[in-house]
Amino acid sequence: MTEVSRSGYYYKPKGDKSKDAILLERIREVATEFPSYGYRRVTAQLRRQGIMVNRKRVYRIMRAGGILCTIRRRYRVTTNSNHSLVKYPNLIKNLIPVRTDELWHSDITYIRLEVSFAYLAAIIDGFSRKVIGYALGRTLCSTLTIAALTDAIRSRDTTSLTHHSDQGYQYCSREYVKILKDSGIAISMSGKANPYDNAKMESFFRTLKVEEV
């Protein structure tokens, strides 16, 4: 959620700072349209509008104006790695992809909708960071991740490809692993309770929830 103080809304820069005052009004317009944006995304949006300004200046004005947003994060566990299925080592610790379909990242997240909820299984390309496969469902069963994987494989080149995920049972399931192996895809998994190994997926889900859902 975004909190804008009453004093922040009526804040006006003091002294000879007419340019800051004009910029503050534009920042308020962006913050009103995108209430969860922090100063980095506000800066990017201003630049898209043709206003060339650096992040430090935007941060200073937003802080002085009391319009820096505070996002209250809710966390729901979607990974259960306490199972007896085979777990695979992390193969991507030093891997920096240089082409598409060299590295895929997979994960599941919980999405709260207006009157309901859903689980989203998604796969993004590690080089382009584009979503290449996804599936929505009401349960965390392995059919959800299999649907996302099938969606990705049907239109991509899986030659010399590594698939990275957490150690959740959905990704360790025999059916999921079989599809990967049958497609010639190398299997890589994050260490237990180490989401930073799959940071690109975490970043994608965070952006999705803040800007779209």
TrEMBL record:
Under the heading InterPro entries, the entry gives: HTH-like_dom, Integrase_cat-core, RNaseH-like_sf, RNaseH_sf, Transpos_IS3, Transposase_IS3/IS150/IS904
An example of a GO molecular function for this protein is: nucleic acid binding
Query: Which Pfam families does this entry report, sorted A to Z?
Result: HTH_21, rve
Question: Residue limits of the Integrase catalytic domain?
Answer: 93-213
Q: Name one GO biological process term.
A: DNA integration
PANTHER family in UniProt:
TRANSPOSASE FOR INSERTION SEQUENCE ELEMENT IS904, TRANSPOSASE INSF FOR INSERTION SEQUENCE IS3B-RELATED
Which NCBIfam families is this protein grouped with? transpos_IS3 (NF033516)
Q: What protein is this chain from?
A: Integrase catalytic domain-containing protein
What is the protein's species of origin? marine sediment metagenome
